[in-house]
Amino acid sequence: MYEEINSFLLRLDLTAQTANKYIIITIDVLFVQINSGTFLIVVDIYRMADADNRVILNVGGIRHETYKATLKKIPATRLSRLTEALSNYDAVLNEFYFDRHPGVFAQILNYYRTGKLHYPTDVCGPLFETELEYWGLDSNQVEPCCWMTYTTHRDTQDVLVGLDRLDLDAEPITEEEIPRKFGWDYDPTIRHKNMSLQEYMKTLPWFKRIQPRIWQLFEEPYSSSAAKAIQVVSIFFILVSIVSFCLKTHPTMRVPTIELIKNNFTNITPTYTLHKERTDPHEAFQYIEIVCNVWFTFEIITRFIVSPKKLAFLRSPVNIIDFLATLSFYLDILFNKILPKSFTNTELFEFLSITRIFRLFKLTRHYGGLKILIHTFTASMRELILLIFFLVLFIVIFASLIYYAERLQNNPDNDFTSIPIGLWWSIVTMTTVGYGDMVPKTYIGMMVGGLCALTGVLTIALPVPVIVANFAMYYSHTQARSKLPKKRRRVMAVEPVRPARGPGGGGGPPGGGGGGGGAMNKFGMDTGKPGGSISMQGAPPSSGGPRKNLIKQGGGGMAAKFGMSENNAVHNRIEDHPL
Fold first, then answer.
1. Residue 275 forms beta bridges with which residues?
2. How many whole angstroms separate alpha carbon 204 and alpha carbon 259?
3. Residues β-bridged to residue 280
4. Dihedral sign, CA of 91, 92, 96, 98?
């Protein structure tokens, strides 16, 4: 005789409260129906086999789930030390919350899983470094494929630091920066809390009161209209001095010095001979130089007196050039106008006066593009030294080759009589100048000359793109900085909000004894009723308790609900592994 059997399985997910937290319990209820009308009900309380080994991480609103063993792969990090006692643990949702960048965390979690740390290209480098520092990871573990992209921000930061030292900002100094710039003992937060800057300046001596104003006139051309006027006057005198220095060397601008020489003859009537001893600049150039140098003297002395940092002022290369150029003018007057001409060498002093041409570097104070150009050569010094090294190396090699190559064949018109003379030819050829004063005349010498020209082109062309790229990088950053707002909105630091705790110590709502009480009551499993409760043995209510707890199904609870005796109650042990 065959009996018809029907069965169906009902799975229920319930929430139960343990000591100070909630756990998810899955209950399987199996209904079996036989022809005779008898029912067999099997109740099984269990959790998933690997549920205790998983952990949920909520980072910036994005939930990530992984195994606890995965987070233990990298010890001594924030994720390897997660415990439920942390303030960012949410017992209701059974997850840890971190208010951090979710996109970066995806790569960090992948690092725990695969052991390879990759750099996300959609975030800035400093942000990625900050996130790695927060999670306790080493930034040097970035994979080689991402290393160059990742370290680009470090080069950018070095560029910005260098631009800060150049002082390219066109914005004038603010009143809040004046006390710090000139080293005043002004503290608006504590000592001078009820005193404004203008009131504090009234207590200073008269020179300290006017020192910032005069300093802004000469050093901050965008601070006022008067400062712009002084800037224009300074540039005008620089250009006039340079033009005058160049024009006074032109033959039409020079006046010859004629010396009358008497001829010693025996006849009674004396005769004389006119001799052109030398030529001097026109007298007008002298007055122009006097006016220009009076302004330069007044400017450098005033700037030195009102300078907040005298030692830094003296160390500035532009100020050193200005001082030497002005000093050469006064030395020229001293030796040419005061001392006798027999004690002076006019040509020597005119050569020393070439330092005045370097006043062109003073234009860097008024034009930021020249500062960027000079800074580009300074930053590209390694490439320039490499270029000079290879040039010197190949110049010596080809000078020696051309000397011996021209001697291998009969060459009566040989121009390369020595290796030092060949050095000049190598320099001219490698730099692609080619004056033509010295040329090889033998076939072997021509081959050496061709190789020398090709080597020079390649040697010079290789470092040039690096220098051009550095200049473009500095210039682009300078343009970007000029468009940025000078004042940024400050972000206030807010302490993290600690999650609210229920009166019973759990994370559920007050008075409920846990978020799963209502679900438990449907099956007579109310934690407050002795007849149908889920008791947690070995776990005191006021503490976290041990990590292994026994859930016991009471006799008047689920068994009585489905007509089962207490002896048929199933006891199942679950383990709450520490997070």
1. 259
2. 64
3. 255
4. negative
pLDDT digits (tens, 9 = 90+) for 105-142: 999 999 999 999 999 888 888 899 999 999 999 888 89
Nearest to 234 by CA among 216, 215, 221, 248: 221
Q: CB atoms < 10 A from the CB of 69, how many?
A: 11
CA distance 351 to 354: 6
- pLDDT tens, residue by residue, 178-235: 777 777 766 666 555 666 767 777 777 888 888 888 888 888 887 788 888 998 999 9
Closest CA to 222 of 257, 280, 278, 173: 173
Locate 268 and state its tokens.
Answer: 């009674």
Backbone angles phi, psi at 95, to 5 degrees: -150, 160
Q: What percent of the chain has pLDDT over 70?
A: 65
CA 332, 334, 339, 340 dihedral sign is positive
The dihedral region occupied by 183, where left means phi > 0, alpha psi between -120 and 50, and beta the remainder, is left
Q: Looking up tokens 């970007």, which residue turns up?
A: 480
Q: What is the DSSP string of 30-42?
A: EEEEETTS-EEEE
Separation of alpha carbons 116 and 112, rounded Å: 8
Cα(378)–Cα(384) distance, rounded to whole angstroms?
9
* Confidence band, pLDDT 50/70/90 cuts, at residue 302: very high
Lookup: tokens for 4: 């018809």
Q: Distance between CA 185 and CA 192 in Å, rounded?
A: 10
- The string over 472-506, giving b where at least 16 C-beta atoms fall within 10 Å of a residue's C-beta and e elsewhere, is ebbeebbeeeeeeeeeeeeeeeeeeeeeeebebeb
DSSP states along 333-355? HIIIIIS-GGG--HHHHHHHGGG
Q: Which amino acid is at 497?
A: V
Enumerate the β-bridge partners of residue 572. 551
Rounded distance, CA 294 to CA 301, Å? 11
Angstrom distance (rounded) from CA 285 to CA 246? 10
The two three-digit tokens of residue 94, written as one number: 């059974």
Hey, which residues does 271 pair with through a beta bridge?
A: 263
- Which tens digits make up the pLDDT trace of 456-470? 999 988 888 888 888
pLDDT for residue 338: 67
